[in-house]
Design goal:
The chain is an alpha/beta fold and 273 residues long. Helices cover 43% and strands 12% of the residues. The protein has an eight-stranded mixed beta sheet, with helices on both faces. Helix 5 links the parallel strand 3 and strand 4.
Length: 273
């Protein structure tokens, strides 16, 4: 993985510098494309390309499907490149400001005009909210992690407040995305994957949640419910301890869902970082 990163990283940086000079790059789509290409190449070369299932029609529709708020569970650095291999429309991440200092990823986020937030600064939070609203009103989807940080043990955590109000205010749908096994492939404190992700990493795109007339509390509950439907049992919240009967019933439901939604690889999709 280190070798692959050392080879592909400089190429990605060079591509960003070249594309950065382009004029008429609406929403920095071409600039973001460099990150999508790198993500696909890096995951392929490290034998960690994910499979995907669920609402694939929305992904195929791209930006024709309109603006929405994509949300996913967050447990690994791997989540970002995995999402960038799957999502097709031009979109913007809401990410922590300190990521701007990370090589390559920082340049991608800043140059691609993604939304960077300092959660300790109230003014930064308000600025983030306004930027997100503007992007959604202009038809550009937003991608965010409602937990606000990577889970240290891979279990789903509580959600931070304010995010879903962004979707409710602009009347755009919320599309939950479940990421499976990214933590086991690359733990939150690891710099590189500890095992190949092929056959393990999986992305499930849920049906869109209509935000019309719903409170933020209702939206939080609906998104959390969507995550838990397809999230592996070992990633469920620790406080949500199920009985043996409940575990068996949930396992049966997930197996039934897998039979009706056969995973496919996403070798032809593209999207921003």
């Amino acid at each position: 993985c280190l070798f692959v990163s050392l080879i592909t990283g400089p190429i990605w940086m060079l591509a960003m510098k070249i594309v950065h000079k382009m004029e008429n790059d609406e929403n920095r789509a071409m600039y973001d494309m460099t990150g999508k290409i790198w993500s696909k190449a890096w995951l392929t070369m490290t034998n960690s390309y994910p499979t995907v299932s669920g609402n694939l029609e929305r992904l195929k529709a791209g930006n024709d499907a309109g603006a929405c708020l994509f949300v996913a569970n967050h447990a690994s650095w791997l989540d970002i490149p995995v999402l960038c291999t799957v999502l097709d429309p031009v979109f913007k991440f809401i990410a922590k400001g300190e990521l701007s200092k990370v090589p390559c990823i920082g340049a991608q986020l800043a140059g691609g005009e993604h939304i960077l937030i300092d959660r300790e600064d109230r003014r930064s939070q308000l600025k983030t909210f306004k930027e997100g609203i503007n992007y959604l009103k202009n038809g550009v989807p937003i991608m965010a992690f409602p937990e606000g940080q990577r889970s240290k043990d891979g279990h789903l955590m509580d959600f931070k407040g304010g995010l879903f109000a962004m979707a409710a205010k602009t009347n755009v749908p919320i599309v939950p995305i479940t990421l499976s096994h990214t933590h086991s492939v690359m733990p939150s404190n690891a710099l590189f994957p500890v095992q190949p992700g092929s056959g393990k990493l999986h992305v499930h795109v849920h049906e869109a949640i209509d935000t019309t007339g719903k409170s933020e509390e209702e939206l939080v509950a609906l998104v959390r419910e969507s995550f838990l439907k397809t999230l592996p049992l070992e990633q469920h919240p620790l406080e949500h301890i199920l009985s043996v009967e409940e575990l068996q019933a949930l396992s049966d439901q997930q197996h039934a869902a897998q039979k009706t939604q056969l995973p496919t690889t996403t070798t032809n999709t593209t999207v921003p970082v």
